[in-house]
Amino acid sequence: MDISKTLHPGDMGTKKLFNQYGDQLICVRYRIDSLKQKRLTTVELIVDEKPFIRYKPKISAWLKIQAKK
């Protein structure tokens, strides 16, 4: 399947889908199935949203301390 067109919310041709999905809509894609000779409309949606916290790895270092004589 080939992608013939990708539209973003607000572009012409996305009004009906934007009304249906709202702010969850990321993009609309038109795909061409050359075997079945059909044009398919697909949507990309946000289904979950969580805060992203990047954890810094803790760096450990072993030191050997020797007493002076």
Describe the structure in brief:
This protein is mainly beta and 69 residues long. Helices cover 10% and strands 33% of the residues.
Question: What does this 3D model show about the protein?
Answer:
- This protein has 69 residues and is mainly beta.
- It has a domain of 44 residues.
- It is 10% helix and 33% strand.
- The chain is built from one helix and three strands; from the N terminus they run E-H-E-E.
- A three-stranded antiparallel β-sheet has the order 1-2-3, covered by helices on one side.
- The radius of gyration is 26 Å and the shape is elongated.
- It starts with a strand and ends in a 24-residue tail after the last strand.
β-strand percent reads: 25-35%
Distance between the termini: 77 Å
Query: How helix-rich are the residues, as a percent range?
Result: 10-25%
| Strand line-up in the sheet with most strands | 1-2-3
Mean pLDDT: 89
Helix-strand layout with pairing:
Blueprint: E1 2-7, H1 15-21, E2 25-33, E3 38-45
Antiparallel strand pairs: 1-2, 2-3
List keywords for this structure.
single chain, 69 residues, mainly beta, 3-stranded antiparallel beta sheet
